[in-house]
Amino acid sequence: MAERPPSRPRVAWEKVVTPRERRPPLEPYEVTMVQPLQTDNEWLCVYREEQETVDFIQAFVSSPEENEDQKIEFLDSICMLCRTANRHVLSQGLDAFCYTYDLAENIKVLLQKEPRDQLSTEVRWKAMLAIARLSSVESVPEGKEESLLEACFSRVFFLPPRAEMRGLTLELYIWTLDAMDNMLETLVLNCSVPRVTELVQNIFQMLLNFTNSETVVARVRALETIRTLSNLLAKNPSLEAWDRFGRDMYGPVCYGDLQIPILGQLLGRLLLFYSSKEETSFPAHDALLALSRLIHNQKSRSAAKGKAQELHWKPDRPSILYQPTTRDFVMEFAEHLRCWEITDVVLAAIEAMRDSSIFDKEAARSVLDLFMRYPSSWLADVPKIMSCIHENLEHINMESARQSVASLLRTLTDQDPTKVVLNLLKLSPPGDRILQDIPEEQGPSSHQTSPIHNGTAMWEVMLSIPQTLEKIFEELLRQIRRRKSHSLVESTIENAYITHLALMASTEFQSEDCGNTYQRHSSLMTASLLLRRLIPLSERPDMTSRS
């Protein structure tokens, strides 16, 4: 067999391996498998400057064993390689090298091996520095940003509170958080133009998920990171990131038209945290300020382009920059949000009243009360709000929370009784599933497919509110008259309405007469007569709220 050529990876590897850790020499056939990769490295432009660094990275990735020192050197080597390539303009082929050895994935694996609840090594800190450096390499780590960030967040957010850290651990903790913020910024700045909106949306969604954690410190750190990302976007209406449009042409990434589809959910969650009495209130306040600046800057840019009217803060109200209350935020955001974003904020408050919710129910009630003070601004999408109530009502058992739901239904009925009644009919008990085909004056939400028994629960809530009974019955009567005037009204729709009326008659008014009438005469005329009897009944003194 021919003499074995020198093995550069083995020399580089042995520099960091202690005598006890040194492994037996590789068999000749093993060296033959690795040797072509060594030769291939010579085409890498940065190889002549960082030969030992490249060889060490290759050897580390090829080895199934590593100690802490080797992990740190591997991460430092990635930083050094990218830094040298950028400094000496030797980046050609570096992206191919990164992909060949899957450096981003190897960094993620190292992060995932770190314990979530303790900080004793530099691996997290160095890993995030390496990720930031990799983001400067074209197309690396494109497509893996979210998984890398999730690995970083999950190994930082659950660490003990800062107050419990001392000495070197505290210093390491500070370095780690700084590295995380820097990594987040560089990943966003270096993202290609077509993926900017998707990446920002996915990061916000990831952070939103972390705010659901049972651990308060994890929620606080997620809120602080939301603030960091929002400030980054707010301070950089045209970020210093560039994308290749041609071989030698680059253009700026402009965030003026950045869309965040979950903005409403995000704001709703922040308002709830801000209204609570736990330690999440302070970071939520900072995150709300940062988001308000982001929204204001975007609207101002649109106004400058002639796409919108003047949207600066009103001088007759306290600026939200100075000791804002929850109401200040609610009023401010109402002016700048799109209609579906406003609705998403309301839905977040409704969902927060579920028994399993991490939110303080009184905080959720106070936020919902604010929305009910300004129904024309916040309660415009009645079908979607009704659908959300329908989906969550069976999971809301706290008496005060159910009272808030009842108040919301009453406000919606006062605001638009037609939509409320039509959507109540859509959300029906089992015998009335045919109402799914009823045409509406205003299109209902497209995802009203929650458990059927919730429809009955909503009727019970509505019929327990004396102020709404007459409006409900009068609206039902109006709907029947309107349909009676159309010659193509289907009998199934007639029967569905009458089923509802019979249900109300038998369960709410204990009227055996009415129930028998329904059984004998299934017609619109009977329904009309039944309603005429029910309206006066609803005004009787004994027909008061059971609550």
Structure description:
- The structure is a single chain.
- By secondary structure, the chain is mainly alpha-helical.
- The chain has helices at residues 8-14, 28-40, 51-62, 68-87, 94-100, 103-112, 123-134, 145-154, 167-189, 196-210, 216-235, 263-275, 281-304, 326-336, 339-351, 361-373, 375-378, 382-392, 399-415, 417-426, 453-463, 466-484, 491-508, 512-520, 524-538, and strands at residues 238-244, 250-254.
- Among the domains are: 209-380, no CATH class; 413-547, no CATH class.
- It contains 25 helices and two strands.
- Helix 10 packs antiparallel against helix 11 and helix 13 (281-304) packs parallel to helix 14.
- The model is unreliable at 1-39, 239-256, 306-318, 430-452, 505-524 and 543-547 (pLDDT under 50).
Runs in which pLDDT lies below 50 for 5 or more consecutive residues are 1-39, 239-256, 306-318, 430-452, 505-524, 543-547
Percent range for β-strand residues: under 5%
Q: Helix fraction?
A: 55-70%
Number of strands: 2
Outline: elongated
Radius of gyration: 32 Å
User: Average pLDDT value?
Assistant: 76
Q: How can the largest sheet be summarized?
A: 2 strands, antiparallel
Q: What is the strand arrangement across the widest sheet? A: 1-2
Helix and strand element order: HHHHHHHHHHHEEHHHHHHHHHHHHHH
Q: What structural class is derived from the secondary structure elements? A: mainly alpha
Discrete helix count:
25
